[in-house]
Amino acid sequence: MKEILVLHGPNLNLVGKREPQFYGSMSLEEINRRLITEGEKLGLAVRCYQSNSEGVLIDALQAAQEWAAGVIFNPGGYTHTSVALRDTIAAIQIPVIEVHLSNVYAREEFRHRSLISAVCMGKIVGFGWKSYWVALNAFARHFQEQETR
Length: 149
Known about the structure:
The protein is an alpha/beta fold. The protein has one domain (2-147): 3-Layer(aba) Sandwich (Rossmann fold). It is 38% helix and 19% strand. The protein is built from five helices and five strands. Strands 2-1-3-4-5 form a five-stranded parallel sheet, sandwiched between helices. Helix 2 packs parallel to helix 5 and helix 3 packs parallel to helix 4. The longest helix is centred in the C-terminal third of the chain and has 18 residues, at 130-147. The two termini are 18 Å apart. The relative contact order is 0.19.
């Protein structure tokens, strides 16, 4: 069974309480539960992790090389500021899909620029918790297509 890391960045531990008009009312724990359940249906083992620390996120990405087939990553506010996260994604040998709960392009101008998009397999924004769900299903399809080649 292929394993997927779902990595949540800063302030995502506050999802469900923080600005529900952008991030929804579902807690991070519930999002994680749903992703683990969906992963099981797709034949993927999902591990979820959240940190507010840039260095801890870098460590998690580097460690994922040893066990994960892919990463679904919501870097939160680091999306727009972290060259270090961008360099880590470029350096690891596994695909990363960038996700965001809100439609970053319908928000403040500074949120329109992602430093990490160019080194990711893809980007999904604006579907609330289902942004992660779409990414998980995209990985499942990607792995199926790889196996049939």
